[in-house]
Amino acid sequence: MGTLEADAEPTAGQGTLGQWKQSFPQLEVTPVEGDAEPTPVQYTSEQSRQPSPELPRLEVEPVEDEPRPERYTSEQSRQSSPEFPQLDVTPMKEDAEPTAGQYTQEQSRQSSPEIPLLELRPVGKDSESTSERLVPEQEQPSPKRLRTRVTPVRKNTEPTAERCTSEKSRQLPPELSRLEVGLVEEEEESQPEHPKPAENPLPQSSSSNATSRRSYKFEIPDFLIEGKKPDWRRHPIQLDTTRYDLADYRTPVGSRKKLLPQSKFFEHVMGIPKPQLYMIEVARARGDAVYRWECRSRIVDVFFHLNLDVLKPEKHILPLDKGLTDAETYEEIPESKIYIALDNSMKPLVVRFPAAFDRVWRSKADDILTTTAQNIDKLIAFKAPTKPKCRRHCHNDKWIAENQGYPWATGATARNGIVYLGLWKEQGHNHLPAIPTADSRAEAARTSSMLKDLQFWLGNITDTIGCCFEGVDPVMFRRYKELFRGCQTGAGNRYSVATVAEEFFTLRALLVNTLTEPHVDIEDLDRGYAWLTPFGSYSGGEFCVALLRRKFSFQPGDVIGLRGKELQHFTTKWQGDNRYCLVSTIHGRVV
Fold this sequence. Notes:
By secondary structure, the protein is an alpha+beta fold. Helix content is 23%, strand content 14%. Among the domains are: 1-62, no CATH class; 222-266 and 349-585, 4-Layer Sandwich (Double-stranded beta-helix), CATH 3.60.130. It is built from 15 helices and 16 strands. It is globular.
C-alpha cells in the first residue's frame, strides 16, 4: 500500500488529498503509509456510528466519553434484549412512580415468566454489566456493585418462590448471560428475633376478674403426671440461679441524664408538693376523716383518725365469709395507679406499687417474674409444701375442695401449703437463739441443693423489694439491716439464709396455692413492714385492708408493703393454674 502523490491519479476507492478535504471539511485526515497503523483520529459520537462508505480505509476510534466495548448505558441494556427488560433494575423509593427506564421489583419479577425463581436485586448506578460470569461461593458482592443474587436454600429442599438451586443457576439459558448468580450455600434456617419488651410498660386498667398480665404458662412435670415418686437421679432438674445487677438497669434522670438508684424513683413518689401539704392541714382543721390527693400516676390518702404510734393490733378478726362479703363494698383502687395510705403524722401505713418490677428491672422484668414461678414449680415438684395449720388458713381444706378442677388441687400434681425460708425461734423457747426453719435445713441432698438455688435466685426479688423499701421508709430500711446483722443464731450461720450481701429480712414465707383469710401478723416486728409480691398465672385474688376499707389488684409484678401487725388484711378468692405469694418480714422474737 503506497502513499498518494499530490498529482497522481487516484485508483478505485481512492481520491486526492484535496478532494477528501473538500468533501469532508470537518474531518482531520491523515494519509496511510504502507502497512503502518493509522494514527488515532478524533470524531464525534454521531460520526463514529455513521461512517461514510466513501471512507473505507479510515479507522475510527471512539472518543473518551463513549462507553467502552462490553459496557452499556442503562437505556442500551434494556433495548439490547427486549425479552428481559427487567435485568437492569434501578431501585425506587417507596410509593414513588417509576420514571423512564425504571421498574419496580415486583414488575421486574412479573415481566418474565421464564425466570420466576430468580430474586433480582437492583444494579448500582455506575456498575458494569459483565458477561457469563459466576461469583465464587466465598466472594461477597461489593457494596458499590450490587448485582442479582439467588437466595440460598437448604440442602434437599425444593426451591420456593424467588429461589434457585446452585445447579440451576449454572445452567441458565443464554438469554440470561448477563445475570450474576451467587452459588447456593448450605446453611441453617435463621431463628426469628424475639421482640424486645417495651421499656417501662405499665399495666392497663381492667376489671378485677381479668387474667394475669404476664404470659406465664404452668407446665406439669412428666413424672407427676405418671403418678410416680420423684427421683432426682432419673429426673434431673436445675433451677435458674442467674443474678442480675441493679446498677446495669438504672434509668437516666433529668436533663443531665444522671444515673440514679432505682430507690430514688420510689422516694420521689412518696414526696408531696407544698400546695397539697397546705390542703392537708386545711382538711385536718376542718375535721375531715380522710383527705385524698390524686394525680395522674398515684393516689394518696391521709387518715386523720389513725395514729401509727398508738395503733394496736386488731383483736376482732373477721370470719372468712364476712370478710369476703365486706370486700365487695370496699373501694377499689385503679389498677394502674400507685397507692399510698398515711396516718395523721404522715407515716406510711400501706403502699402499693403496680408494675414495680418493670420500674426496677425494665426489660428484664418479665424474665425475672416468669423464671421465679418456674423455679418454684420445680422445687415443689420434689418437695411438697407444708400444710398450713395457722389461723389465717383454717379453711384450707374447703378451699381445695372448691378447686378440684385445677391440677394443683387434686391428684399426683396437687401442691398446696407453705414453704418457710429463713430464721425463727421454736415455740416455747424464746430464750434460745434463732435457728433456721425446717425447710431451710432440709436433710435430703437434692432438696437442700434446690432450696439453696432458689434462695440464691430470690436475691433478685430482695433487690426489687429493697428499692421500694428504701424509697418508702429509709429509716426503717436501715434498721432492718441492723437487726439482721445483730440477730443471734444457734444452729448454723445467719448468713446461710441470706439472699443478698446486705440482707434485711429474717424470714420468708412462700404461700403455694393458698387462700389467705383475714388476719394480722402478730409475730412481726412492732410497727414493722411486711412486703408481699405474687407470681404465677391466675385471675382475681385482690388484696384487701379491712381497717382502711380499700382493695387493690394484686398481680405478678406488683409489690405491696404494709404494717402487717397493726392492720388486718386478706385476699379474695382467685382462679388459675397456680398462685404463689412471697411474704418477706422480720419476726419480733428473732431480734
